[in-house]
Amino acid sequence: MLIAGNWKMNLRYEDIINFKETLYDLNLDNRVEMAVFPQFPLLYYAKKYLLDCNIEVGAQTCSSELKGAYTGDVSVEVISDIGCKYCIVGHSERREFHNETNGFVKKASTLLLSKNIIPIICVGESKEIKIKKTTNQFIKSQIKECVPDNINSNLVIAYEPLWSIGTGIIPEYEEIFNVHNIIIKELSHIENLKVIYGGSVNMENCSKIFKLNNVHGALIGGSSLKFKDFLAIYKSAVKQII
Ligand code: PGA
Fold it and tell me: Would residue 65 show up in a list of annotated catalytic residues for this protein?
């Protein structure tokens, strides 16, 4: 399982120190990995500072180009130099505010995999698509357009319904189960594929989500900023696999 904290454009240097302090009584279980995704300038520091806690650190996006005249972008080479295991690609906020298209996601994911960084590809339907009841087809085509063609291992898909992100509303548990099944079927050729759920995961709803046997973890925004909640969610994931 993977419990991933997407810190978005929140938290600062001193918060990383506070975060480490809250970890002191946490027994990490090697079957449940914890990863945090701070802002770019904090990545190097977070990686170094959290190294002895066995917490993975990842980037929130990357460039789809290897290097060159792309002012403000960050290359997968630098993300790899820092030692990031994961990089989120195609988060809905990146799609909305920075024009990350499915084509971008495929290209960036291919680059990431070439540097042995595991992409966490975000997919998810809008409210309109949900109302039209075309979620399944939409997710299938997103997967087809986002996942690199010749990949056979090392991929995480985050199913994040757009209407659930930051709203406190989550799908019916059965809906999560069904969409995860579709993703797993579409990508059955990929070894050690993880499909994690994201969108308003919190201390109250997480245990029911983790009870679904095709949920391999969570991508957590708001609740990952409250470290006690984030740790409680982690502990709930550990409980599910015992
Ligand atoms: P949320 O965000 O947990 O605040 O809904 C999830 C995400 O955007 O990855």
Answer: no
